[in-house]
């Protein structure tokens, strides 16, 4: 069964054969409050899906796929006195879906 992908404020269908995806190494995106400007480049370049490498706390090797804690957002995304949370990530993903007509995936 093929998935049905929906985007936009009107929740219109994004056909599977129309996906254009850009991968971002999450650990290279910097502080979370800078992500929107960086991700906007993909939107303005015509991409309609973003693939993030894992967003969780990284292990000692600092590899994108070496996780120290699968339940916690990578603290590198936070600034002093401004902790990045899963709720923050969710709000950005929702904005991208509704306002930018973009979907996000991660592994």
Descriptive account of the structure:
The chain has helices spanning 35-44, 86-99, and strands at 5-7, 12-14, 21-24, 49-52, 56-58, 67-73, 103-106. Strand 1 and strand 2 (12-14) form a beta hairpin. The chain is globular. By secondary structure, it is an alpha/beta fold. The mean pLDDT is 97. The two termini are 21 Å apart. It is built from 2 helices and 7 strands. The chain has a 3-stranded parallel beta sheet, covered by helices on one side.
N- and C-termini, Cα separation: 21 Å
Integer-rounded radius of gyration: 14 Å
- Give the % helix: 10-25%
What does the largest sheet look like? 3 strands, parallel
Low-confidence stretches: none
Q: Which percent range describes the beta-strand content?
A: 25-35%
Structural class: alpha/beta
Mean pLDDT: 97
Number of helices: 2
Tally of DSSP β-strands: 7
Question: Can you write the helix and strand succession as a string?
Answer: EEEHEEEHE
Strand arrangement across the biggest beta sheet: 3-4-7
Query: Based on the structure, what is the oligomeric state of the protein chains?
Result: single chain
Categorize the overall geometry: globular
């Amino acid at each position: 069964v093929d998935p049905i992908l929906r985007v936009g404020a009107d929740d219109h269908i994004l056909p599977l054969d129309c996906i254009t995806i850009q991968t971002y190494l999450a650990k290279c995106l910097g502080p979370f409050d800078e992500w929107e400007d960086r991700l906007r480049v993909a939107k303005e370049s015509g991409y309609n899906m973003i693939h993030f490498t894992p967003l969780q706390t990284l292990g000692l090797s600092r590899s994108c796929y070496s996780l120290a804690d699968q339940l916690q957002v990578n603290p590198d995304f936070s600034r002093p006195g401004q902790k990045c949370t899963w709720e923050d990530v969710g709000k950005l993903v929702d904005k991208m879906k509704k306002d930018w007509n973009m979907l996000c995936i991660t592994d």
